[in-house]
Write a structure and sequence with these properties.
Helix content is 0%, strand content 46%. It is mainly β.
């Protein structure tokens, strides 16, 4: 069992930046692929970014490519989402998630590929 706790959300002006953090419990963090999804009320949860266990591969939604980066620090059991050039469409509740099984180019966008979810951290971008 893995527990995920997100932090770093908040209110930011358009064009600004935020860094979200997610800390995982347990001693097996390095064995999980990690991801970020986001959701706005009335819409389905949307894939944002993912990183494999060794950080050998990263995946991004087209809407955030070139603006967001994802990284992980196994020594801190943490994964990070750096968000630059934020706009109003990035406003959402952001969820950290962990996958027990390897991600690949087919499944990384699918919520069902992930096994554990945090409670979310709100990001609000004002225009």
């Amino acid at each position: 069992q893995v527990q995920l706790v997100e932090s770093g959300g908040g209110l930011v002006q358009a064009g600004g930046s935020l860094r979200l953090s997610c800390t995982a419990s347990g001693r097996t963090f390095s064995t999980y692929a990690m991801g970020w999804f986001r959701q706005v009320p009335g819409k389905e949860r949307e894939f944002v970014a993912a990183i494999t266990t060794t950080a050998g591969s990263t995946y991004f939604a087209d809407s955030v490519k070139g603006r967001f980066t994802i990284s992980r620090d196994s020594a801190k059991n943490s994964v990070y989402l750096r968000m630059n050039s934020l706009n109003s469409e990035d406003t959402a509740l952001y969820y950290c998630t962990a996958a027990r099984f390897p991600l690949n180019s087919v499944n990384y966008e699918e919520p069902d590929a992930y096994d554990y979810w945090g409670q979310g951290t709100q990001v609000t971008v004002s225009s």
